[in-house]
Each structure stands twice: as structure tokens, then as C-alpha cells.
Amino acid sequence: MAHKLSFSWVLHQHQPVGNFPWVFAQVYDVCYAPLIDLFERHPQARVTLHYSGPLLDWLLAEHPDYVARVAALVARGQVEMITSGYYEPILPILPAFDLHGQIMKMNAAIRQHFGYDPTGLWLTERVWEPTLPSGLAHAGVRYTILDDTHFLMSGLAGDDLFGYYITEDQGHPLRLVPNPKLSRDLIPWRSLATVESALRRLHDEAQGAPRLVVLADDGEKFGSWPDTYDRLWRHGYMERLMTLFEENTDWLEMVHPSEYLARTAPLGRVYVPTASYAEMMEWALPAERSALFARVNHDLKAEGQTDLMGFLHGGSWRNFAAKYPEANNFHKKMLRVHNKVRDAAALLGPNKTQAALDELWQGQCNCGYWHGVFGGLYLADIRSAIYQHLIRAEAIADAALPAAGLAATLTDFDCDGRDELLIEGPQMDVYIAPHDGGAIFEWDWKQRPFNVVDTLARRPEAYHSKLLTGQVRIVPPHDPKAAPEVPVDYAAQERARDEPAASIHDIVQAKEPGLDKLLHYDPYRRALLREHFLSAKTTWQDLVTMHYTDQGDFAAAPFTQHVTVTDAAGLVVELVRDGTVRAGKDAQPLRLVKSIAMGKDIAELLVTYTLHNTSTRRLRTRFAVASNWGMLGGGGNPAAWYEIDGCKPAQDAALDAAGTAEGIRSVALVNAGVGVRVELTPGTPADLWRFPVETVSNSEAGFERSYQCSCTVLLWPLDLAAGDRWSVTLRLAITPTE
Q1: Element (H, E) at 400
Q2: Residue 408: which H helix or E strand, with range?
Q3: What are the helix (H) ranges across 9-52?
Q4: Cβ neighbours of residue 391 under 8 Å, at least 6 residues apart?
């Protein structure tokens, strides 16, 4: 019996935890709603849908009618639902308990709201590791979808991707459905004549044998990506696509993956190596190697040697934790909080345990853990949301676990072979890196909750070379529903020539000119309490551009550390370095003692610096303490501002503004939107430099400026005779806004 060509269309739709409500609403208007309207108008269409938990929660709150409409499509057999981790985590990096729990939570939601028991799983970012099948099978998953890249790396060829395979781990089987690049390149980028021709060719080549073509991709591609709404919806591409399927039912059928799996034998057994989609493995590499990898791929494609590309392996997704210490911080914080929640479960009881788990699981949402063509880690609001949920989960667990006061733990928190000092208590956590300048790289306030050191350093990215070589067109941000300034006759365009529309991965544009002037790179993480010694000629602009010489060797050098517990259930951390300052021709020895006192009942640090000139000569320089604050002050946020000596500056008060002041007695950074205020009070009046730390990152709409944090630098002139000491105390306090 001759078989029709089976076509499975799988749409994955997701918005990250912490994304702005207006983004949810905008994408709903240009993408999610039009898609369901389309499927209702074409009852013969059969599609498979996935909604991530954060998006489903928003839909239930804002558009419950939409959820009911999808449920109706499910009830009449037109839509199949697939599951995932509820909050869209990268599954292989989770503890087994959380992997299982997140999938079970999503399964329960699909049963409740759509009346369906899912057997398929959307694998977040297609991040696959060979041990996944056993965990997925334990959660009731029978199949998942992987890109063609995974199968090509297993040794299969392009013609082997039109069906499904079986893999296993520890004897637990899992069906793997290939998602060929062919289909993702066709729809919605090529003309419908080309789509029909390609599908007919696949049918004819099968010679009557069963064959499955899968198109599994982001739903946001169909209206939300640049220039897609006008072409796909206003000019009828999607309507004509449905008509194409309806008019060719003699040889082409739309099926759900589960239907095809139930009636067709697998193509064989396969074992897939650690992989993700091709672009992700490129992005996971260090910047220079990522650019080289992209160039090799480009050259092979240009030479028509695409068959060799399957043997190229980029970086493992886990390499983002090596590429970005801030992303590694999320993961290790998440694991630490997971252990606390599990330890506290018996004391919390089932309801509070589930509340803590929901917070923990929201903190596992993948988007802030990596960066590629999407903002991800570079988006401060997404990062902040991860920390807020993790800290809230930790606070729930802490309330049940016995603790007399502050606890100090010396451990290799970030798994880099060097110990960090973790101070944890009921009010706050303070994480210190003695080996990295004795800097504070995390300060969590549990009352709100909020990490005031949620920052990102400026680093080279492979795509920066495009800015530097001028290969960028300037396209200001625009409403995706807005019609092009110059109307486009897409039908005539298709008739005249069949060139693919630009994909998100091909677009090279920027939202504003001059972004290349912002490409400055930091030699270390943006943290609190890094000490510098600066000449009189150094300016704050020099610190922004990194065009200065630090006369000292303290900023990122190792300190010795000692912890003393006080009678008031507090403690003092003393960090000491015997270093040098090159204020003249020769380096002079200097001992720097940084003493940090803290108590359990208030989010406050008393930092006392003692500088001892241990040389035999006078030392003249400027002592500077730089601190970087993640206070969500980007875009001129009117709810975020500076206060200097208790007053809001008349000009340039925003947290992404720059300025200087002399002889200040206090500086505060305020974000009324999140209800957090941080104040620095020097015991001796200091000069102040303040400036934003801004990166240039890529996004679906092109290159953009991204605010990461605000840097404050307190400076004092230093004139020490041989053997003299100088001391100053800083008070750092986190308080709620009124």
C-alpha cells in the first residue's frame, strides 16, 4: 500500500520567568492569538502544541478564553499537547528530583486545562545528554524531538531523518523524532511553491514507503520575529499554507507525532551524543573559537560540502557555565538551594515544601543561564527574576531549618578548585571570593528578596566583529504589527524569484548607531569591594574604557581570610593581602586589611580598611573602592535613582547616568519598583565617581545596548609616611524603600 507523506507541525511557545508583561501581551497579539484563529478556520489542520509554564500561567490569568479554545481543539482531535519541565529548565543540569517534579507539574497542568495525557516532550533548547532517557521514561515520556544536528553527529545522513528512532539508557527506551533543517528552512521563509515542491519530492522519493517530515520550531517565529507579522498574516502566507495542505490530501497528510509512532515501526536504534541545535553549540564556545567555528561552517556550506558539517561539534551547553561565571553562579546557587529545600522538607510539611519547590523551579528557567542570538543572560530583569525565586525558596527553607545566627562555610561553591566564603543567615547571604580580591560576588537580601550584586561583566562576543567591521544596518525598534514604511508586495516577490526571507540568525542590524564605541571589556567580574590605587591623572572615563593603570596589585589578587564569631550572633571576616603599589618608579610594599563585620538581624556590612605602608618611603596615591550594583536601573528607569548626601541629584539622577561629586558623606542607589535601597556611608568624606556598566549584545531584533549594573567608586587621597597606617570605615546597608 502506498503511503502519504506524513507531516507533523510542532509549535513550542514560551516566555521566560521575569519577562515584562507587555512582552507577553505583544507576542500574544501578533503570534499566539493569530495561530489559534488559523487552526479554528481550518479544522482539517492537525498540529502539536507546547506552552511553557510561565506562558500558560499568563494565559490563564489574562486570556482564559484562549486556553478554553485550545482545549476545544484538543477535544476534537485537532491538537496534541506535549509536556516539558514546567518552567522550561535545561533538563540535564537538574537534580533528578527536580527533573521529575517539573515534568509531573506540567503533566498535571495539561490534564487539568486541556484534558489530555501527554506522551511527548519538548526538550528545552534541544539540550540532550545520553543519560536523559531513564529520567524521562520514569516521568512517562515516550518520545521527544531532536534537531537533525543530533542525528548527524550520531553518524546518520540527511536521508535518514524522515521517521523516528529508539534510544535507551539503562534499558529505559525513548523514541527520538528528527526535526530536519530542511523543513525549518522552508517554513515560513520560502515561497509556498517551493514548500510544495520540496514536500512532493520527499513523497516521491519514498516510493510508497511511510515517511515523516517534522517541523518543530518556536511559535514566536510566526509573527513575533522581525518582519514576519506583515508577511505571514497581513499578506496571507499562513492562510495559503493551510490551503496548500488542504488541496494536496491525495499525497500529503498532517499527523500528530504520537499517531505516526503508533502505526509505524522505528527506523532503528541510535545513541545520540551530548548536543543541542547547531547555533547553540556555536554560541557555547569561547568567543574566538565560536567565530572560527562559524567561519568553518560557512565555508563548508559555500563549497557545497554540507555532508561534512555533521562531523563538526561545537561546545556543550554546559560550557556556558565556564564562559560566563555569572551563569555558573545561577546553577551553583540553584543546587545549594535545592539541597536546603530537600533538607527542610520534613520540617516544612507538604504545602510549604511545594511552595518552596515552585520557587526553586522558577529559578531554574533556562533563559538567564545562557546567551546566543537572544538576550538571555544579558537581560538584567531575567537574571534578577532567577535570583528572586531562588532566594525566596531559600528563605522558606531557612525558616524551618535550625540556625542560631550567621553561618560561615568555606567551600568551593563555583567548582573552580578554589574555596569561596559563604556567610548565610536569616536576613542575608554574603558570598566572598578570597582568591579574587576578597570581593563580594553575591549579596542576597531575603526580606524582598533581591541580590544587589546581580551584575554582568563586559566580555568579547563573536558577533562583536560585525560591529567593528561595519557590517550592520541601523534599524530602530518598531512595533511588530506596524506595516513597513515602504509597502512590500510579497506575492510579486515570490513570483519574481524564490529567495528565502531572512531568518533571525541571518539578520545583521543594530537599534542605534555608535554601538562599536561601547565595546570595552572587563578583566574580572563586576563585584563589590574591589580596591584600586589610582594616579591623579586617572578619570572615571578611564575606568569605563579600561584605559588606566592600577598602581596596586590588589583588585583581583588573592587575600588570606579569617572568620571570628562575635557575642551578638554575628561575625567578622578579616581579609589580608601584603601587596605592592607602584606610585613612583618602584613598587612599594603595602599591607591592606579589609575587615567586614555583620550581624544576623540586619542587612548591613561594616567594612573597615586599614592600609599600612610597610615600605621605607613615603607613599602618595589615591585609594579607590569600586562596587557594582545590580539594581535594575536601565533605560532611564524613573523608579530607580541615586541619592547623594540624602538628596536626589537635580541632573543625571538615573542609575544608568554618570557623574562625580566631591567630599560626599553618603550615596544611595534606590529602586522603588522592587522596594530596595542600598546606601554606602563612608566614615571619612570621599569623592564619588558613578557610571553605568553597559554591554553590547545581540537579540532577535539586532544589536542593542544593555544596562547591566551601576558602578560606584569612592576615592580618598593617600599620603602615608614610611610605617604609617590609614583607616576608613564604610557602612553598606540594604533597607526597604518607603
Answers
A1: helix 380-400
A2: strand 407-411
A3: 21-27, 33-41
A4: 429, 444, 445, 446, 449, 450, 451
Sequence-distant contacts of 320-324: CB under 8 A, at least 24 apart = 320/284, 320/369, 320/370, 320/371, 320/377, 323/284, 323/285, 323/286, 324/370, 324/371, 324/377, 324/456, 324/459
Give the pLDDT of residue 472: 74
Q: d(Cα 668, Cα 658) in Å, to the nearest integer?
A: 14
CA atoms within 13 A on the CB side of 633: 33
Angle between helices 64-75 and 96-114 (to 10 degrees): 80
Tell me what pLDDT residue 311 has.
83
Q: Nearest 5 degrees, angle CA 479-CA 484-CA 488?
A: 145
The per-residue DSSP string of 156-180 comes to: --GGG-SS-EEEEETTEEEEEEEE-
| Of 597, 457, 594, 622, nearest in space to 530 by CA | 594
**Non-local CB neighbours of 697 within 8 Å, separated by 6+ positions:** 371, 375, 378, 461, 703, 704, 706
Q: Which residues share a beta bridge with 431?
A: 422, 442
Q: What is the pLDDT of residue 225?
A: 87
Handedness of CA 266, 271, 277, 279 (dihedral sign): negative
Domain residue limits, the chain: 5-276, 521-736
Please state, in angstroms and as integers, the Cα–Cα distance from residue 148 to each residue in 82, 275, 280, 560, following that order. Answer: 20, 11, 13, 51
Q: How far apart are CA 54 and CA 62, in angstroms?
A: 12
How far apart, in Å, are the Cα atoms of 275 and each of 109, 205, 317, 449? 29, 29, 7, 35
pLDDT tens per residue across span 274-309: 999 999 999 999 999 998 888 888 888 888 887 787
Compute the distance between CA of residue 168 and CA of residue 270 in angstroms, rounded to an integer. Answer: 8
Class of domain 5-276: alpha beta
Quote the pLDDT of residue 92: 98
pLDDT at 493: 63
Helix, strand and coil percent figures for the chain, each rounded to 5:
35, 30, 35
Rounded distance between C-alpha atoms, residue 87 and residue 67, angstroms: 18
Angstrom distance (rounded) from CA 11 to CA 27 = 14
Residues in the chain with pLDDT values less than 50: 497, 501-505
Q: What pLDDT is attached to residue 391?
A: 98
How far is Cα 150 from Cα 274, in angstroms, rounded to an integer? 8
Q: Write out the catalytic residue numbers.
A: 125, 218
DSSP state, residue 737: -
Amino acid (1-letter code) at residue 720: L
The DSSP annotation for 344-387 comes to HHHHH-HHHHHHHHHHHHHTTBGGGG--SSS-GGG-HHHHHHHH
Lay out the sheet containing 120-121: strands in order across.
Answer: 120-121, 143-147, 172-179, 165-169
The predicted pLDDT at position 354 comes to 97
Q: Report in angstroms the alpha-carbon separations of 661 from 554, 607, 636, 689.
A: 25, 22, 20, 7
What is the per-residue pLDDT for 568? 75
**Alpha carbon distance 713, 717 (integer Å):** 13
**Cell representation of residue 459:** 566580555
The 8-class DSSP code of residue 483 comes to P
Cell representation of residue 44:
482539517
Is 644:712 a contact under the CB 8 Å cutoff? no
- So what's the pLDDT on residue 595? 98
Judge whether 689 and 660 are in contact, CB under 8 Å: yes
Backbone angles phi, psi at 698, to 5 degrees: -95, 155
DSSP-assigned letter for residue 518: G
Residue 30: all three cell numbers together: 501578533
Q: For residue 132, how many C-alpha atoms fall within 13 Å in the half-sphere facing its CB?
A: 32
Q: Which residues contact 497 (CB under 8 A, 6 or more apart)?
A: none
Class of domain 521-736: mainly beta
Tell me the residue type at 385: A
Amino acid 585 reads: K
